[in-house]
């Protein structure tokens, strides 16, 4: 073979020559059919040669591609594990092999890259894997059986090879009878004389070396026969493997009585005579008529017995009438008798049966509460003389352990011993909720006067609806119900449908029109409801009632949360607006009427020390839209309040007071808000005298409640007049965390660094924008910009804009190519168009207010929380390998 340079020249010549002919000839290394050689070796790990029931071991499979040059293409190993074993662990798939397990067959396909877009196992390579298996504890494999296991390996270019490993069974003599049990149905209603069937199973699960001669199956649980009578003894529906004879035994009158051996399958009569109902235990002994040993079997024999629920307990003769569901436990016991007449008892298998109370039971609930808008959620209060809204929510739940035919809710309770203030409530609307599987409902209404309306019938068949509105109770106009009942039905007498746990509902809403002093604490607005449940056949009825009350209050007018503020600003600066906020809330339980606000304090601004002598009105507005209100300003030229909406700009500038008058009452719980914007009047002393007074601005809130009681409250806010140059002052800080990092190392992830900028409005001005530009050439030359931008907006700012530069960083930032858009996000991204963040060599971040007002407040420290703690702007960079 020539030198490398000669070989290279040779193939270059071939390539050039071939191109001249219109095609290229390249050397091939693709393996051809049967060019490769496979090898496989299978063994038991640790050279283990025997296995016992329940023991686990592993097979080791080694495969090789023995070729010196050709890889083994598409190499696959298939191992069909013998059916006598269970697979406990299969090899895991990896990037170089696929593994599938189907039944007891394990397939491992190798997909290592062997060149020319082919996969398999490289020439000269060897691989191995293990498969964990177990011989089941109850195996039926005979003792000293050799179990062979053969694995094969294939490849598309090699002959198939196989390898076999065997292991011998060692089966100790273990006697193990097994049983199973079912009981159908699993429940019944007391006093129903319900018929049930118990199926008992038995098999010989002993080892193959055990010599079992008989299988014995016993069912004599005392608790079972205390509640049940035997009605059928057998039949045998399947004989246990190897048996054809049975001895039937019964426990009766305190002793066991057994039949002669028989090959009959039953049902059987009582051995020795007697009634089936007197039997309190049964036993079946299975064997082979020829006395042969019984084999191991994975399949059970089965025998049935029928039981009927008694009306009375067997031992006490008392009725079986539980008040709650009662559980009866029944167990079957297996046993095996060997050829030496030794008996081995196996593990019991038990089933539970539930005896359901035969009486119906209904559980009602009731909730009464203030509800001003009829949405069945509590709000406001119930106040004497205010026609307060009130709602009631009532339910009736079927707490019987079985389905019933009828559920009914009656409001108010018809029991005269239960209190009712239903006559103080004018019910105007309602709704009802269907209980599960009810198919019809009848609404019956009695009116306080006049004739009663016809019953209304609603259909719910097929069952679909959940809640349905009652749009009209049917009483005459202005007349309200005195009694409302809703009756749900479903099914027939023999097949009732309203299932156990189903809940019916009735909700009513109206006005507490006649509450009085008798309803004040501790009594409240009292009311009770009846709930009735009827069994499907009508033989059993249950009625229950429940009461509730809602608190009633005397009328009480009040205002709270009365505040005047300036949005956190403590100074007023010449030429800059200042917002005064006014806020108050109706904290009483009745609406406030004749509500009016005067700013400053008095109805006559000329009669007080008026702050409007120093400030002029810029604008006034009400933030609360409901209730409606009207704004007025005081015009000193006419010594009267005039309408703000129609006032001229000159009238607004010379005004010396603001009045806000609510057009409608202020409802309970409602907060009213308004805003008055002012600025210092011009000309203003410059420089400002050192003894210039602060500006104190107050307002008076007046309102009436409870038929004319006057409420009068005042709130004030003082601001300092500051004489400053017409410029803002801000502080910018920059911090890098961590301060020291490792030089980038090939193969290791780059260490990220967080750059933090702090931007503070040092005041006293409050601003419309604040920002910074970072184009530090030395810094961006040493790092790659990553992104991951997070911001904490300065107080008052509500949006942020991010601009970046790549190659034009020396130009003014407004001329940069990549300009962002304002966003309210706290994780803004760099502008679109930047293909690689590492190209960023400068950044500008600008915080602003979306209304362009001066609302960014002075501050002395950045926020400590968020994703950019102790800073306003954070972003990540990584160090470059070279500058």
**Low-confidence parts:** 1-31
- Percent helix: under 10%
Radius of gyration: 47 Å
Oligomerization category of the chains in this entry? single chain
* Total count of helical runs of at least 4 residues: 4
Q: Note the beta-strand portion.
A: over 45%
What is the SS-derived class?
mainly beta
CATH arch. level architecture of the largest domain: Sandwich
Strand segment count: 56
What is the overall pLDDT average?
A: 87
Main sheet overview: 8 strands, mixed
Distance between the termini: 48 Å
In the CATH scheme, what's the topology name of the largest domain? Answer: Immunoglobulin-like
Under CATH at level 1, the class of the largest domain stands as Mainly Beta
Number of domains: 6
Shape category: flat
Task: Give a brief description.
With 883 residues, the protein is mainly beta. It contains 4 helices and 56 strands.
What does this entry look like structurally?
- The protein has four helices and 56 strands.
- The chain is mainly β and 883 residues long.
- The protein folds into six domains: 1-30; 38-169, Immunoglobulin-like; 177-356, Immunoglobulin-like; 362-553, Immunoglobulin-like (Sandwich), CATH 2.60.40; 559-721, Immunoglobulin-like (Sandwich), CATH 2.60.40.740; 730-879, no CATH class.
- The strands form twelve sheets. Strands 15, 17, 19, 20, 21, 23, 24 and 25 form an eight-stranded mixed beta sheet that branches. Strands 40-49-48-42-46-44-45 form a seven-stranded mixed beta sheet.
- The radius of gyration is 47 Å and the shape is flat.
- It starts with a helix and ends with a strand.
- The model is unreliable at 1-31 (pLDDT under 50).
């Amino acid at each position: 073979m020539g030198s490398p340079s000669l070989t290279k020249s040779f193939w270059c010549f071939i390539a050039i020559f071939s191109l001249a002919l219109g095609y290229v000839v390249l050397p091939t290394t693709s393996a051809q059919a049967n060019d490769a050689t496979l090898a496989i070796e299978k063994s038991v790990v640790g050279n283990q040669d025997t296995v016992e029931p329940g023991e686990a071991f592993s097979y080791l499979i080694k495969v090789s591609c023995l070729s010196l040059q050709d890889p083994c293409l598409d190499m696959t190993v298939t191992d069909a594990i013998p059916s006598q074993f269970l697979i406990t662990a299969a090899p895991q798939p990896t990037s170089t092999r696929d593994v599938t397990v189907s039944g007891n067959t394990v397939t491992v396909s190798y997909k290592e890259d062997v060149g020319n877009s082919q996969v398999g196992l490289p020439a000269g390579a060897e691989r191995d894997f293990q498969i964990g298996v177990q011989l089941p504890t109850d195996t039926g494999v005979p003792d000293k059986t050799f179990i062979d296991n053969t694995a094969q390996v294939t490849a598309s270019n090699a002959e198939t090879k196989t390898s076999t490993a065997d292991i011998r069974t060692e089966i100790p003599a273990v006697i193990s009878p097994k049983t199973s049990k079912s009981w159908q149905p699993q429940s019944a209603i007391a006093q129903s004389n319900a018929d049930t069937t118990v199926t008992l199973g038995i098999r010989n699960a002993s080892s193959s070396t055990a010599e079992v001669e008989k299988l014995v199956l016993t069912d004599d649980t005392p608790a079972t026969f205390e509640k049940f009578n035997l009605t059928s003894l057998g039949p045998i529906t399947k004989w246990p493997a190897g048996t054809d004879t049975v001895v039937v035994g019964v426990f009766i009158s305190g002793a066991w009585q057994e039949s002669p051996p028989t090959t009959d399958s039953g049902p059987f009569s009582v051995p020795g005579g007697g009634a089936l109902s007197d039997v309190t235990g049964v036993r079946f002994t299975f064997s082979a008529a020829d006395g042969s040993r019984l084999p191991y079997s994975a399949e059970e024999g089965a025998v049935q017995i029928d039981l009927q629920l008694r009306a009375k307990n067997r031992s006490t003769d008392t009725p079986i009438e539980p008040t709650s569901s009662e559980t009866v436990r029944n167990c079957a016991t297996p046993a095996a008798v060997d050829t030496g007449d030794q008996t081995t008892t196996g593990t019991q298998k038990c089933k539970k049966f539930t005896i359901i109370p035969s009486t119906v039971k209904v559980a009602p609930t009731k909730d009464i509460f203030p509800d001003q808008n009829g949405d069945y959620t509590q709000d406001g209060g119930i106040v004497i003389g205010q026609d307060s809204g009130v709602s009631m929510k009532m339910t009736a739940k079927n707490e019987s352990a079985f389905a019933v035919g009828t559920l009914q809710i009656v409001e108010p309770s018809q029991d005269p011993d239960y209190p009712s203030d239903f006559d103080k409530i004018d019910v105007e609307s309602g709704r009802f909720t269907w209980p599960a599987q009810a198919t019809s409902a009848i609404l019956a209404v009695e009116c306080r006067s006049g004739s009663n309306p016809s019953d209304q019938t609603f259909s719910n068949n097929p069952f679909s609806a959940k809640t349905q509105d009652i749009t009209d109770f049917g009483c005459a106009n202005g007349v309200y119900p005195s009694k409302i009942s809703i009756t749900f039905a479903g099914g027939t007498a023999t097949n009732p449908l309203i299932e156990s746990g189903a809940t019916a509902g009735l909700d009513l809403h109206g006005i507490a029109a006649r509450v009085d002093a008798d309803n004040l604490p501790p009594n409240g607005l009292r009311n009770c409801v009846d709930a009735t449940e009827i069994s499907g056949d009508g033989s059993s009825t249950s009625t229950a009632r429940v009461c509730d009350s809602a608190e009633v209050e005397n009328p009480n007018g009040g205002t709270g949360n009365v505040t005047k503020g300036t949005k956190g600003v403590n100074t007023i600066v010449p030429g800059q607006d200042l917002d005064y906020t006014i806020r108050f809330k109706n904290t009483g339980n009745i609406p406030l009427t004749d509500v009016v606000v005067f700013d400053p304090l008095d109805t006559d601004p000329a009669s007080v020390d008026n702050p409007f002598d120093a400030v002029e009105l810029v604008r006034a507005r009400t933030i609360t839209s409901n209730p409606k209100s009207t704004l007025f300003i005081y015009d000193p030229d006419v010594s009267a309040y005039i309408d703000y909406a129609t006032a001229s700009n000159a009238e607004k500038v010379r005004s010396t007071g603001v009045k806000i008058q609510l057009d409608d009452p202020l409802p309970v719980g409602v907060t009213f808000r308004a805003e008055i914007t002012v600025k210092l009047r011009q000309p203003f002393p410059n420089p400002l005298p050192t003894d210039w007074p602060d500006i104190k601005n107050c307002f008076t809130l007046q309102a009436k409640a409870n038929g004319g009681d006057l409420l009068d409250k005042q709130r004030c806010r003082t601001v300092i007049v500051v004489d400053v140059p017409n410029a803002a002052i801000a502080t910018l800080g920059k911090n890098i965390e961590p301060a020291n990092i490792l030089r980038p190392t090939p193969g290791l992830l780059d260490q990220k660094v967080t750059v933090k900028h702090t931007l503070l409005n040092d005041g006293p001005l409050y601003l419309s924008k604040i920002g910074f530009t970072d184009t530090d050439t030395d810094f961006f030359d040493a790092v790659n910009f990553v992104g991951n931008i997070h911001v904490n907006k300065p107080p008052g700012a509500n949006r942020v804009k991010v601009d970046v530069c790549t190659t034009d960083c020396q130009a003014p930032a407004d001329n940069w190519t990549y300009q962002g858009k304002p966003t309210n996000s706290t994780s803004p991204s760099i502008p679109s168009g930047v293909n690689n963040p590492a190209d960023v060599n400068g950044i500008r971040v600008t915080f602003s207010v979306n209304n362009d007002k001066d609302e960014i407040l002075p501050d002395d420290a950045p926020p400590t929380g968020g994703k950019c703690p102790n800073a306003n702007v954070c972003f990540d960079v990584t160090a470059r390998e070279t500058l």
